[in-house]
Amino acid sequence: MKARKMSDLKETKVNSINNERLSWIDFARGLGIFLVVFGHLSLPYPSPFFETRTFNTMLVSSFHMPLFFFISGLCFSAKRKPVEFVKAKARTLLVPWLFFTVIWIAFKCALGLKDGALDFEFFKNTVLAFLLQKRQYAIWYLTAVFLLEICFYAVLKLCREKTVAVWVVTFLILAAGIIYKKRVGINLYWELDIVPFAAPFFALGYYLKRFKGFKIKKKLPAFILAAALFVLGQGINCFNCKLFEPHFVSMFNNEYSNYLLFYLSALCGVFATVIISRLLENHFSYIKYVGKNSLVFFGTHQMLFILLERVLNGFSLSAAQLTLIWLAEFVLSFVVLTPINELLTKTKLKIFLGKKNTRN
């Protein structure tokens, strides 16, 4: 009887941790947003391995999107019935995606005006491009993770949540993705072709969720470990990009050079971020704020960058001047988007972000 009570207590504790919103996860997601925005800066420093890629893009692309898929796995639950599950995911992922899609279509059409008129063919192609969602700016992640969560839910149910069976199917899905990429290689709608490559990160997050309440007792060794993992990950990434075609890594482009090196590099970056987030979760509250409200920052920051690029096209500037301007734009993007986020999250408009309006 006593053993049973202890078992129930342990299970309750695990369930409590699984259901609790942990601040380090918000911190990690916030760091991820900062990395996404930093990676989109058009800094005048090309990658040493691929000239059309910037150095900052090469730096973050090795692990920043794997980090988001890993976090999604950490927060994933398959307790709902199938219809309820799909409805919930449609509300929290597809509603925001559609909201940002409408904003992006309006933005692109406004930029495409010629003499105050909008070409119908341009409008039609823009609408189709965003609705079919084949690599359209940062919001590609929303459709990709929606399909991934539906897929993983189905795998869990078909495998009756048996861990070994789930991992076997996950790697079979990855193998199918590699074969498709090698033999066909056509980008699929709603980023379906990216799903197999994101699945291992998602599955890993899901199976590590019982440990997400972990604590770090010795901070200095943990900082050293995080730094070592980050340096190791970047070293593996540089090695990967130098030796293997197409000489860059990008989940957005579904390019990984060498698959094994990509996963090793990404996991180093992911776990370095996890450790840093656990260590610093009680500091830098704005990073947690961005993590809790990631959708607005994620979905719209590139609009500001596009506008800045249009302005800069008319000037001849040095690398130092461009660097200062883009770093200022990095800061400005958060300054501008924070009040916009407040407007959307603190009013009834939050339904467009997939949140429910609560009645007083």
Number of strands: 0
Structural class: mainly alpha
Query: Could you estimate the helical fraction of the residues in percent?
Result: 55-70%
Estimated share of beta-strand residues: under 5%
What is the makeup of the main sheet? none
**Poorly predicted runs of 5 or more residues:** 5-19
Q: Taking all residues together, what is the mean pLDDT?
A: 88
Calculate Rg over CA atoms: 21 Å
Continuous helix count: 14
Task: Tell me what the structure shows.
The protein is 69% helix and 0% strand. It has 14 helices and no strands. Helix 4 packs across helix 11 and helix 13 runs antiparallel to helix 14.
List the helices and strands and how they pair.
Layout (H helix, E strand, L loop, with lengths): L1 H18 L3 H17 L15 H7 L2 H11 L7 H30 L8 H13 L7 H19 L4 H21 L11 H13 L11 H25 L15 H22 L4 H8 L1 H19 L6 H27 L15
Helix pairs in contact: 2-3, 2-4, 2-11, 2-12, 2-13, 4-9, 4-11, 5-6, 5-7, 5-13, 7-9, 8-9, 10-11, 13-14
